[in-house]
Amino acid sequence: MPGNHSVLEALDAPAHIGCVTLMAHDLGKMATFHQKVLGLTISTSSTHEVNLGTADDTVLMRLIHAPAQRAPDAHAPGLFHTAFLLPTRRDLANWLAHAQMLGVQIEGASNHLVSEAIYLSDPEGNGIEVYVDAKRTEWPRERNMIKMATLPLDGASLMAEQDKDVTGWQFPADGRIGHIHLKVGDLAIAEAFYIEKLGLTVMARYPGASFMGWGGYHHHVAINVWHSRNAPKRAVGTTGLAEFEIVMDAGIVLPHGLTTSGEDPSGNRFSISGV
Questions:
Q1: Average pLDDT, rounded, for the chain
Q2: Which residues contact 256 (CB under 8 A, 6 or more apart)?
Q3: Alpha-carbon span 128 to 40, nearest angstrom
Q4: Residue 236, number of CB atoms within 10 A of its CB
């Protein structure tokens, strides 16, 4: 059963996703949402920037005030969702109970065979996934790849694991961002970039989507063209994704021509730390 363990599978890899930075039109509203709904803790804040994360000051989300920027076109490349990974299935059950107490609008809930996930959006339309992994040994395999699916979540089984009192729920200290899911204009071109430039391996494919990971994880980076097929490069000066951080183990040699920051062919920016 997913998540009945304490190891975050996403971190058992030579690289993983660190902090995600968003440009926010309404900084205060966005910061309050991430505190209240996701239980993140503010580590530093100013009138221009708010950093949020775990209670031990691991920053997972950086919000930058951008009141003059416009919202991105729905069909443009950019963020599909940021995926917050919880350590255990009980954590997911407790978070869901917490969200229901707040009246949060849940947009979807799925069993992906490798994980159980719940979906929602922040006040500015940025997608969010809150999920828990199955043990790596339980991930189904098919033709040398990981088999994933989108099946209904067993809500009754999940909620049977919740604690009696979830008042004051906080994001767990050992929770992390497990993966980032991006919208791109051309799936094949973007996939080749992430494989060749960032060393990811394709772990699974859906029609119109590719799921790639480091170290055998089911996916640290997903890309899709479901709403953005053939879209031009991401426009500058919009809210939403500013960049995502890739944390690499010390000593990894970057491919030739790649520095500690860059962007994919659709204009989704990233930074690299730890090398």
A1: 94
A2: none
A3: 14
A4: 7
DSSP codes joined into one string, 6-50: S--GGGSSSEEEEEEEEEESSHHHHHHHHHHTT--EEEEE-SSEE
Contact 65, 38 (CB under 8 A): no
| Cβ atoms < 10 Å from Cβ of 92 | 26
Identify the pLDDT of residue 251: 67
CB 113 within 8 Å of CB 135: no
Do 182 and 210 meet the contact criterion of CB atoms below 8 Å apart?
no
Residue-wise pLDDT for 157-166, tens only, equals: 999 999 999 9
Cβ proximity of 132 and 115 under 8 Å: yes
Q: Write the CB contacts of 68 (distance below 8 Å, at least 6 apart in sequence).
A: none
Q: What are the angstrom distances between the C-alpha of 98 and each of 37, 39, 222? A: 8, 9, 28
Q: Which two tokens stand for residue 163?
A: 């604690």
Closest by CA to 12, choosing from 65, 81, 104, 85, is 85
Report if pTM > 0.70: yes
Distances (CA, A) of 159 to 36, 114, 117, 155, 170: 20, 19, 13, 6, 18
Q: Cα(3)–Cα(151) distance, rounded to whole angstroms? A: 17
Q: Which run of H or of E encompasses 138?
A: none
